[in-house]
Amino acid sequence: MANNRIRLISYSVMVYMILAFSWWTLLLLTKNKDAFQARQELMINNYRMPGGGSPGTALEHSSAYQELEKKYRRQEYMIFGEALVFVATLFAGLWFIHQSYSREASANQQRRNFLLSITHELKSPISAIRLVLETLLKRSLPKEKADHFLKSALKENERLYELVENLLLSAKLETAYQPLMEEVDLASLVSELLSKSADRHPEASMSFHQISPAPLLMGDQSGWTSVVTNLLENAIKYADGKPSITVSLEGTANGAILSVADQGPGIPDAEKKRIFEKFYRIGSEETRRAKGTGLGLFIVNQIVKAHGGNIQVLNNQPRGTVFRIEIPVAKE
Prior knowledge:
By secondary structure, this protein is of the alpha+beta class. 60% of the residues lie in helices and 14% in strands. The chain has seven helices and seven strands; from the N terminus they run ααααβαββαββαββ. The protein has a five-stranded mixed sheet, covered by helices on one side. A hairpin with a 5-residue loop joins β6 (310-315) and β7. α1 (2-46) runs antiparallel to α3 (63-138) and α3 (63-138) packs antiparallel against α4. The chain is elongated, with a radius of gyration of 35 Å. The two termini are 56 Å apart.
């Protein structure tokens, strides 16, 4: 609310300055014209034709009159020029103020979204773990049932651990992230992560296709693990109904292409450039049902860029989204 008042005051001051300067410009033009006409009349009164009579066009062709008219035109152009520069500067100031406020509003909204989402993401697993522990303390359960509860608590703990890891990694990516370069067998890594994801999400349908052998890549093993994991979790999180995910890997002359395709609702074209922003999520935090913090795709994009790669967001057919990552060839 305070920001809106400051914004309104800033715009009002700018509009007032434009109107005030427009008035002063008109006033200067009028005064300049009056001064020219006064000097013109004075010149006419002082001009004497041989034998008397009216000066007529003879005065207009005199060097003194032409110099006076040139000076008047120069001053007129100078007033117009300065007015245009001043107005253009004010409009530029208005534009910069608008952009600044828009960025601030967007940042505030992102922070608000993050606080809402992180509160939910932290509260949910903590509550689930607490419930399991209280149940085990208060009741004597058969081993099979107790094991089931313990596995559930372990799953929530793993979710909490991954959330904290993502928070730490996102902070590191903006300040001091340096990929630990080592040979990475991307095919084996993807296959292993798909297997783990399938165990965690038995309801999801996942497949892996290696179109052509991919070369070994020099990269950060943990970084690429985070990339693949976040893309898989993202596809599962936003799926309509039963998740269906296809991962493909293709070796190229320049490296490899990794694609993760889903059959979800897809991403509008207007949002495709923004989804990699930190904390950005499509829609409102108050009404969304999907879990998340808006960090997953930000982490993916930053790690891919740190390895000299490129990521694209494409439309899948007949529906859904494809994240296509071009990874450079291994360099010793």
